Amino acid sequence: SLKMASDSPESLMTLCTDFCLRNLEGTLCYLLDNETLRLHPDIFLPSEICDKLVNEYVELVKTDSIFEPHESFFTLFSDPRSTRLARIHLREQIVQDQDLEAIRKQDLVELYLTNCEKLTAKSLQTLVSFSHTLISLSLFGCCNIFYEEENPGGCEDDCLVNPTRQVLVKDFTFEGFSRLRFLNLGRLIEGVNVETLLRPLASLAALDLSGIQLNDVGFLTQWKDSLVSLVLYNMDLSEEHIQVIAQLHKLRHLDISRDHLSSYYKFKLTRRVLNLFVENLVNLTSLDISGHTMLENCTIPSMEEKMGQTSIEPAKSSIAPFRGLKRPLQFLGLFETSLCRLTHIPAYKVSGDKNEEQVLNAIEAYTEHRPEITSRAINLLFDIARIERCSQLLRALQLVITALKCHKDDKNIQVTGSAALFYLTNSEYRMEQSVKLRRQVIQVVLNGMESYQEVTVQRNCCLTLCNFSIPEELEFQYRRVNELLLNILNQSRQDESIQRIAVHLCNALVCQVDNDHKEAVGKMGFVMTMLKLIQKKLADKTCDQVMEFSWSALWNITDETPDNCEMFLNYSGMKLFLECLKEFPEKQELHRNMLGLLGNVAEVKELRPQLMTSQFISVFSNLLESKADGIEVSYNACGVLSHIMFDGPEAWGICEPHREEVVKRMWAAIQSWDINSRRNINYRSFEPILRLLPQGISPVSQHWATWALYNLVSVYPDKYCPLLIKEGGIPLLKDMIKMASARQETKEMAR
Fold first, then answer.
1. What is the pTM of this model?
2. 388: Cβ contacts below 8 Å, ≥ 6 apart
3. 408: number of Cβ within 10 Å
4. Which of the 8 DSSP states describes residue 480?
5. The Zer-1-like leucine-rich repeats region domain covers which part of the protein (predicted)?
6. d(CA 504, CA 491)
7. Domains (ranges, CATH) in the chain?
8. Alpha-carbon distance 21 to 28, whole Å?
């Protein structure tokens, strides 16, 4: 019943369902008294649509953190005259007693309740309303459904301590469920009498009693002419059990597998037991004996075993008892047994740990109900993806995504699954993955980051995100991914490696994106977070990647975004700039990033007065002589001063240094740069440079702007010539050549 991650485009049905669920009010419903959802009176929906609405709703609540559940959602399906339900699959905490109660008038044919721990015995009573139509029922992991709350009467004091006592319901049976054929009671709580519960059922076809301990299963023979599937996973077996199973001659699927780590089992499999199954269960097409220890050797001599081409013909089987099979099995579960490593296994599909195919079969078979086994299988896949090359990449990815979605709260699966995803999405597999599949990976990675503050999961998830093109591939979850990363960086205790990756991702996310994205991220506290990280590093006197990335991220997020520039100044950014300059005089990369950021601040006219102090102007003037990172630091310092000069002499509100002296140093710096310098800078727009051209108040600023344009269009013509033309640079340059105030060398360069 698990919905597999798919790689094909969504059907129109799925797209419409998804849209309606996300916009219930605008489509199927209206709000009554501003709180209760009601179906529009003229809407009539068949079961094909209603089933999908309910099942997709459960999936969305479970896997999409942005999706808001509605308390009154199930009441939309309370009246079979307007909505019909037939087959629904409900999971986990999403479902409560009142939700089932709301749909009790529906004629359900199939009802799967998986791990619905909030359901109590009230829901057992609701099940009776479906008794005349129900064919399939699963109560797997509904551990409280046989408990009702009893309030001991008249005990004032005790009631305060223990207001409700949980009492086991003993009298419920499947009396009246005349059509029920498929039943899953996996992980049923102890104390319920299974035999009494099931006795009224006339002809069962499939029964799952996973994780239930029964010493006597003799009652199963009452369905020996109808039972085709029996699952006894983790039931401690005995000779009596085996004798009963051997009488169920119609069985096509038998699962007696176990988790070999869970507890001590006395039972051991023998050659005789396997022979008994092969001789008596002649219709068997699927058998699972995973996790069992063989008491004796069931294999043929090793010389014979190694011979010939690998075969699935029973006659050549390496497992001796299976030579008696009439035809190969469709499925044989041998996970965590020694038998899976043999050469000739008479089955089309085998679960085991020998190779990729067997491991993927194991993940596929056990994901829904056996996370404890699945996490070990995914761990094996992780090793395969890490050491060898995955040959069934698409299938592996789909299975891991499905497991991570299904077990969002299972720590082991989140750790192993997120680690496997890192290797399955790296660049060598890139060509084989569609946009849709890569988006699904991003969704489950972000789910993992949201649900787990655990270091390993966080690190795996961040590393996996590094396999994507940023920001392009993360654009569809832009807000969410930024919020999660800032959340990681704002934690007081920090794992060094996660911090480094998260800052790197933050930096990449604000590089080359639209200004509205930058503004949104600024409002989330991005500037503050980066400054805090810088502050911490300064206190430790360390200038590492985190320090450099943080300044780089600030440089990116302030680009043409005045609000973020203002935040930088308001949160004492200039103080940190000076301290970093003093503490790390030799760190060229750091100087370049800091000056690039200040260039952005200086482009904002309203903020420039804050840069107009003797201290800052002296620092910028001294950096004009810097040889750090080629010309970059000197170039950016000159850019900052060019914007300040552009405000004219009257804005120069300081005595020291003199304006003329700084102008002189600027001319000297520009003349010292090599016009063919290759650049460590990326312009999305020339607008801030172009505005320095049509003015006569500061010829040196005009010269810096012209030099910048000349250098960029001559070294990178393909990229920057179109930008210059597009932004109207040509007429501005032509006009400037005619200006009397412009210096001769500036005009030459402009020409």
1. 0.88
2. 356
3. 18
4. H
5. 196-337
6. 17
7. 33-148+180-186 (no CATH), 469-602 (1.25.10.10), 612-750 (no CATH)
8. 9
